[in-house]
Amino acid sequence: MGVEVCWDTSVEQPAARSAAWRSMNAVVRGAKDEWLALFAPDAVVEDPVGPSMFDEEGRGHHGHDGIAAFWDLTIAKVERFEFVIRDSFAAGDEVANYGTITTFLPGGYRVDTDGVFVYRVNASGLVTSMRAFWETERAMATARQVS
């Protein structure tokens, strides 16, 4: 269980990359309140971007209440997360991370979700936007039962 990153977290990093790492770390630990505190009051989470089983209209989850509801609908139902970030591209107030999120679900199932995960922060370092680009069908094709 943990976050595997390809950048040196002991060296000062751009604010967006640091916020992304703190976000992943909070998710791995199941720290909902800590995770929510990383977001600006008017932040938007799109995970995945566009219409999905988590967001039928594809408009994203807005503000702390909407983002908290997203946690309850998705993150809270996962028994364990593993993040492997293969590469990270920081520019301006954003970072785009490429990697795999592995979720361990009730009933002994595991799903690997490859994607690009984009975070934008404000001048205070709070996340204003988190956009996850991944395809449901590709992720579900990796579903398997593990012992």
Describe how the helices and strands are arranged:
Layout: E1 2-4, H1 15-29, H2 32-37, E2 39-46, E3 61-62, H3 63-73, E4 80-91, E5 94-105, E6 109-121, E7 127-133, H4 136-140, E8 144-145
Parallel strand pairs: 1-4, 2-7
Antiparallel strand pairs: 2-3, 4-5, 5-6, 6-7, 6-8
Task: Describe the protein.
The chain is an alpha+beta fold and 147 residues long. It has a single domain, classed as Roll (Nuclear Transport Factor 2, Chain: A), CATH 3.10.450.50. The protein has helices at 15-29, 32-37, 63-73, 136-140; strands spanning 2-4, 39-46, 61-62, 80-91, 94-105, 109-121, 127-133, 144-145. Strands 1, 2, 3, 4, 5, 6, 7 and 8 form an 8-stranded mixed beta sheet that branches. It is globular and about 45 Å long. 26% of the residues are buried.
